[in-house]
User: What shape does this take?
Amino acid sequence: MSAGRWRHAPVLARQDWPDGTVRYQVEVDLLGDTTVRVLTCQWPQPGLQVARRSSSQPTRAADETRQGSLPRRGPAPG
Assistant: This one.
């Protein structure tokens, strides 16, 4: 809830902190002016609720389909 309206915020990452709290990194347009911000919010808290649950399973592994290749070095000069 921001500025009196519910705002949808896609979750970018979940963080499980050592003290047991859970925080979510989200992209959100807080004022409805199309200025998108990335915020980290502790869960649960007043003013936040689940709108839709993902059908994807969480993972800790890197998504290798999204990793680019590193540039290759050419032959050493001289």
